[in-house]
Amino acid sequence: MSAVEVQSLRKIYGNLTALDGITFQVGEGEIFGLIGPNGAGKTTCLRIVASLIRPTSGSVKVFGRDVVRQDAEVRRIISYLPEEAGAYRNFSGEEYLEFIASFYASDNAERQKMVDEAFHVTGLGERLRDRVGTYSKGMTRRLLIARALGVTPKLAILDEPTGGLDVIHAFHIRNIIKDYATHYGVSVLLSSHNMLEVEYLCQRIALIDGGHIVAEGSPSELKAKYGAQNLEEVFMSATSHE
Amino acid sequence: MNSLITLFWKELRELLRDRKTLFGIIVVPLLLYPLMGAGINVSRSSVEQAVARATIAVMDLDGSPESQSLTLFLTMKVRVKPLQRQSVVEALPSLSEGNYSALILIPQGYGQNLSQGLQACLTVYALLRDLSAVETSRTTTANVLLAAYENALVVERVQGLLANSPLQGLNATSILNPVHVSYSSVLRGKAVDVDPSQLLNIVISQSTFPLIIMVMLILAMQVAATSIALEKEEKTLETLLTLPIGRLTILTGKLAGSVALAGISAIAYLVGFSYYIGSVTGLSSLSGISQADLQALGLLPSPAMYILMGFTIFITVISALALAVSLAVFADNVRSAQSLVGILFIPIMMPALILMFADIGILPSYLQWILYAFPYTHTLLAVKAIFIGDLPVILRSIAYIAVFTIIVLYVAAKIFTTEKVITGRLFARRSRSGK
Hints:
Helix content of chain B: 55-70%
Low-confidence stretches of chain B: 283-287, 428-435
CATH topology of chain A: Rossmann fold
Structural class of chain A: alpha/beta
Shape of chain B: elongated
Number of helices of chain A: 9
Largest sheet of chain B: 4 strands, mixed
Oligomer: heterodimer
Mean pLDDT of chain A: 91
Shape of chain A: globular
Number of strands of chain A: 10
Helix content of chain A: 40-55%
Radius of gyration of chain B: 33 Å
Order of helices and strands of chain B: HHEHEHEHEHHEEHHHHHHHHHHH
Strand content of chain B: 5-15%
Number of domains of chain B: 2
Strand order of the largest sheet of chain B: 2-1-3-4
CATH superfamily of chain A: P-loop containing nucleotide triphosphate hydrolases
Strand content of chain A: 25-35%
Number of helices of chain B: 18
Distance between the termini of chain B: 36 Å
């Protein structure tokens, strides 16, 4: 079964077509990347998969569940990290992890296990006992990644997971994502601007521009297809921006 | 249910730990009114102390037994400084330096006039340093004392006259005050032996009660709007909405958290306000009026009426919160959310201010209909009716508020269960293509 199945997805805001009939699939345990410039439609697509907003037409299924008709079921098996996400600044990092885990765990023992896991993933150590409001941007992002993956969802939807982070924090977060996909079989649908990151993390990618998918395949397949040295060249060729 | 409890505690913790929220809705009402009251208390006690410390200078140019009797009377009441015989013009400069409130000049012939049954004269020089309340109170002390002395003289004279007349045996007081008035208060046909002026506190508490409810309502709305706006401002709303919790559970959790916080805030407000009222009126308790008197006047609602009042306030608060949440969804941050909610303060406060001083029945009919159209007018009418046990008005008002609450809750739920909660903006910026 596919982790994500997007079929002829359209989203229109007033006079604006954000997504114009895109189709793609994400396999189980796969890391799939949506790559495109600002305003290409990546965030809209991820929000629809996360059941936050409704499609104008087309269908989206997560592990066979329709995101419109079975949104409550979808939310039980996904975890979504928005691009510009924050955590409750008056909570400590630990309290925040406990708060999130309490919605996924069936009992206290399971909740504690999730918190411990996330505690380890953040790599923030004792700073987790401090108020989130005192964290740097990188620390907050690590907390949020740990929140998203620590509950071991079937599908993690990550919008620009390392956006705006320095090399050290970005490196740490990329390793966490890869680790969860490899060891826990978590399927990942992510968006990114960073072509190196995408090449390192994703088994397959879709290039999106102006609400259309212009190319799809593994990074090596796409480079071969477009005779390109890297994904940046692929993107420029595929979108005819050269 | 567990999710709801978790959300409820999260709301409380998040809001109570937010210094701005905590300060604005709990610390300010808790401190503002007591501070105002304390200010009034301090100035009042300053006046009292200044009056008590004041010294009255007496210049006795008469030296008669009558003038000495007056000086003795004054000495028994306040500090008195006898002055040597000199001219007043010479004496005044030295008096302006000490703590003197007045100079009483007893002229020559004072005692003689009195003993002959003629009118005797005194001159009081009020010694003012400035024109503050303290100064004017200090200078009235001499007047009050002289009036008391004069009254005693009158009683003595009348008693003397009575002793040598056919009315011998009559009391001078009954001659001077032939009519004694005792007061009863009659409210809606029920009478008790209470001076209506003693009902002042009840009148104040009843007339300010609607205002307190409306202020509480506004506080609750600010809390609810802040709660939603904080989620947007801190970028936590999207995450919250993708957690495995129903949207209505999230909405209920927010409303419950806001109700609880508004309750805490209302208590802080009431504590502060009652202290303030006590300070202002100098009547911190209903002195002179027994519970039985209140019961007889119908001013003590029954337990059933209190339950109705609680229910009325509860559904009113819920509707206000749902309104605030519905509006705050369209704001990007706390400041714009509070501005949006601020629009609602006018229709909330207007009925409260009007009905604080007037009964709706005496208003012009067009104003009555305008007020009847505002849902929160009915909360005020219900609360007023509860105090006097007018059941038809209570039920009619509760029905109106209940219907309004259901409609507003439906709208809030509708907004919350659609993508409007994410995409909604009242002053929408043009979205970038495709984002």
